[in-house]
Description:
The complex is a heterotrimer of chains A (126), B (495) and C (769). Helices cover 76% and strands 2% of the residues of chain B. The longest helix of chain B has 32 residues, at 150-181. Chain B is an all-alpha fold and 495 residues long. Chain C folds into three domains: 128-542, no CATH class; 559-716, Four Helix Bundle (Hemerythrin (Met), subunit A), CATH 1.20.120; 717-762.
Amino acid sequence: MQLFLPLIIGILFSAGFYLLLRRNLLKVILGIALVAHAANLLIFTMGGLKTTRPPIIAESKKMIEGLVTDPLPQALILTAIVIGFGVQVFALILARRLYQQTGISDINAVKNSDVNTEQVEKDGSL
Amino acid sequence: MIISILIIPLLGGIILLLSSKRPRWHFTVNFLVSSASLIAAVIVLTQTVSGRILTLQIGNWPAPFGITLVADLLSSVMVLLTAIIGWAVAIYANKYVNAHQAGEGFFALMQLMLFGIYGAFLTGDMFNLYVWFEVLLIASFSLMTLGSTSRQTEGAFKYVLLNLVASAFFLVGIGLLYGVAGTLNMADLARKAAMMENTIVLQTVALIFMVSFGIKAAVFPLYFWLPASYHTAPIPVAAIFAGLLTKVGVYALIRVFSLIFIHDTNFTHTILLIVAGLTMLSGVIGAAAQNDFRRILSFHIISQIGYMIMGLALFTPLAVAGAVFYIIHHIIVKSNLFLIAGIVERIHGSFDVSRLGDVYKKWPLLALLFFIPAFSLAGIPPLSGFWAKLTVIKAGLDIRQFAIVFVALGVGLLTIFSMTKIWAQVFWKEQPITKEHRNTGNNPVWMELIPVAFLALLTIIIGLLAGPVFEISNRAAEQLLNHKPYIEAVLGGGR
Amino acid sequence: MELLLMLLAVFALAALAPLLYSFTRGNTGWLLAIFPFMLTAYLLLNIPQTMTGHSVQFDWMWIHGLDIHLAFYLDGLSLIFSILVTGIGGLILLFTGQYLGNAGLIGRFYSYLLLFMGSMLGLLWASDLITLFVFWELTSISSYLLIGYNHEDEQSRRAALQALLITAGGGLLLLAGFLLLAQIGGSFSFHILRSSGRSIQHHALYPLILILILFGAFTKSAQFPFHFWLPNAMKAPTPVSAFLHSATMVKAGIYLLARLNPVLGQTELWHMLISTTGAVTMLMGAILAIRQVDLKKILAYSTISALGTLVLLMGLDTKAAFKAALVFLLVHSFYKGALFMITGAIDHSTGSRDIRHLSNLKKSMPMLSVSLILASFSLAGLPPLLGFISKELVYEAKLQAPNAAWLITSFGVLANMLMVALAATIVLRPVFSGKSGVAVKHPPSAFLLVGPIILSALGLVVGLYPQMIAASLLEPALIAIQAEVTTIKLALWHGVNPVLLLSLLTFLGGVIIYILTRLYPDHFKKPLLSQVMKADTMYDDALDKFLKLAKQITLFIQHGNLRYYLFVTLLTISGLLLFYLLTEQMAITLPVLAEIRVSDMTLLVLILLSALMMVLTGSRILAIVALGVIGYAVALIFFSYGAPDLAMTQFSIETLSIIVFVLVLRKLPKFSRLSGRLSKTRDAFIALLLGGIITVISFLVMHQQPTKEASTFFTENSYTAAKGKNIVNVILVDFRALDTLGEITVLAIAAIGIVGMLKLKNQKGTSSP
């Protein structure tokens, strides 16, 4: 069974990276979302999946007895999911704003901030 | 004491957020909060300067189970530098942030960004570092989008996306690291990595971290987001970005590549050395091609980061000390230069050097205040940048790494070229009179000159009293290269 | 201590000069000159001490960890240079007060002049390599500021930058040389280096060190092929040319060679590199000088020639050569300083420096004419001036040269013939011709005359009584270089010997050349030695090409296309990982496919199909739905592997995300076919490659079985110590509460940012200027 998770991670990363490299604003954001999923799954996998018993102490007990899944990666992923959500929504709204402001739907056309055509033509005289 | 470093900006941020109806007070509140941070940072440094490593186990859970905050000398120095820049910008911002922007949460975001930066410098846990990175990133995203021009949005979009990719790889690295070592506490990682026999996997993890932090530190060929965005941000924000944000990445690189990933320095640090050379070169070449005050400065950030990475890559005590010295010098100088660019723009209404001029004749004090950081950046003795360059170059020569040394020297010359370009165009030249461009009629005011003068004074002091600063850098480097005290301080002596 | 205090005083004076000027205006020059004269007096009073070999010292540990000291000492060698700096500096200040009057930013001009004086003294007194270097660079910077004094003139700015780039570029190499030298020699201190000279010269890095240091010295002292900045530096006001660019700063390279001779000298390489460069520069400077008509340019090129002579003498590396060099150093500073100031005074009075337009100065400016004649005679090396003695000594040294003595001597004779012709050119017609030239607007005032007269008179007086400098100045300086006591005898008349014959030959040759220049003036204006002349334009070309290249490279790297930024980023990480994994050649054992669960299989297929759907679909809604499916599938994976909390969170957050996506969808561009097949293939390749690499690494890591103390600790202590039964929750709110605090902060900030962006809706932004 362990084979599957790395495979799924690979699939998600590949699809995510591919989408990141598209020219449509929305696709790029979708790519980010996929990559985030993949990263979370990767952390999860690294917990070592030896069992499926959740790390919850039974009502009557004070301590876990026997093997449970590693709680630490789960806690980390929880944090990462929430942070990822905040950041992705931010990026999404930013993309919306970019589209509204410039009307550009093609990322290849988003060049204004580092290449100033006026500046390129003007010679850098001393 | 460490916790106060985090609590002050957090509380400050919250207070500023809650009082968004009273933006007029924000400037004062922000100034007070920044001053408190500065005092706290100074106190922390006085406690660690002797070589003591302060630790704080959050919630009293012993390491490596809880999260540990660690203030060794490098962290304390970074914290102090952050506080200094935060303080200077807090004064400077008065003239640049209007009540509307303050109401939008400008100062609150600034404090929360500083909160994230402080956290990143102090944490001793890899995942916690990720969290701090996200805090400071999202705050910087928000600050960057506070403006409203389309160019700003474009710059911000690139900045956000490339940094999100970096964050994703950071998470990948964390996951793999946990899978390899079963811990995320840095001291614990150092201990376990040192004992690991099969380091192949660890090495791949190292490479992932190198790229992730490399993006944040803006090294070649991962720095694209920086020149695309820094010059679009409002000047007080840009000054903090320029001084501090990339240095968080550099700090993270130094931390993990001196503490954790040191099993095959032949491989990793050689890559870093090549990266350092290319970063220096491409940055300075990029600067030569620019005509915008801020763009020139932005590209120089990149080229200077090359020097810091060079110090890390050479990986001798002297070289690492040089990297630390370089960071100290650079943060103060580079933030200051951005602040000065802002003043010039406020007076003369442009960042385009070909449209500027006359500052030397009209504002001699401003010219002097530019001259000091600019020629410090260019490495002119006895200013701070000279000693920083001297140290890394000496470190390179000592172990006969001639190639990188000559790159560094050449880049030094081109840096002089760039700084004199600004000097000649903005300060010496007669301002060309054009129809579309007119001076704003503003004069420099003390509120903006005082922080600039303060930072310039620091530049001179670091230069003239380079001995103590070097001593601090040297001790910080010793701590970085000798892990035992660090591990003992975090995990307790028993291990 | 007194050395440091004096330096600090000069710098303090520099800082205060603009303030002083605002009070004293026209009197500032002579007021400021008082201090340098006091310094000169101090230095002169120190002569007896240096004659006994003693030196004044100061030492302060600057950077302990690097063993860098701020250290000074005053010995015979630095004394002779320092007297020139303070003495001529004082005269220059007197001169400046009158020459520049109240024009422009004169307060700052005084400032820079004093800054230079302090830096030059620091350079000369330094007994530590780094101390020396600090002041070395400061002289370059002050020279930059002074050349660019007329800052609104583009030519001045260009000249200032050129001088700075050349000297600072050499300076950087010099620094590298110093650092290597100190590492091999074990110290930055001259005193220690001196004693380890032999071992340094036998070190494998000696050639590199010497070459690096020579770059520094040659750029500073305007040696071929770096000479071209010096004539351009004549854009500076004349006092600057007189002071920095003939009498003092450009001699710093010579000083450095003399200073380091005990450490690096007496080798083949030293002889060869230095004397060749010096000889070429000497001759070239003289040839170029005779072709000029602007007095300042004439002087500039003859300065290059003189510097070449000095460098050549350093390269000869014999006692006779050092003796000659020291005398020549003095005499050159005297006459060249005088000539520059005379030029300035003439320029000030007539508004012209063109020798073709100057005439009958003997009438209009008699005092100045006398001074001009004296200085020119020194330049030509005619008796009874000091110039004659020095020329004889130089010839003597050249004749005794260890290698190629005849070649060197004939170079020297030729250069000196040209000097004779030059002297004739600047004296005969301007002074004696009765033709009416440019009119004298106002005769030079006393302060303008003091400097030239004193300096040219010195050439005569010392020429007549040469022995007065022999024991007091020259012997201590020679001791400082060669570390052995020598007695020096100087006289005008040595009897008839080869040297005297050479002098006669020189004079005759000079006269002939002068007559030739008068007969065929045009011939001397032709672009002879065109390659050498072109150094200046080559500099421009190189700068131009560099800027063009920089633009191209930058446009290539920073092209503005986000997609390729991302591409390069992904390529970098794949490349690094692939490179490493391939070099390490590890065996990847695939995990056992033992427990294949149907549910896993289903999830895998589901995710694969959804991912494909996202990639391929043309519908935005479908893509978002597919993303939702993937999110839920991930939640299912969490659930099925014992992470119910995680699954719940993932489920709800995913739902929220999808809602947001759908809400914003309307405001986002539709999908359209933008990429071609090629770029799709390329992107798919890199995406699959990197995805595959991560899969492989995950496999590798899954084989590791690290001990997880933390997790064990959590399962054991979560209830007993933290009173919680759901361990994941306990970790979040207690063990790792700081993460959660950060997480909340992120959400809060994101909310602020998002609200801020939404508020600004529908504002079609305009580009900022």
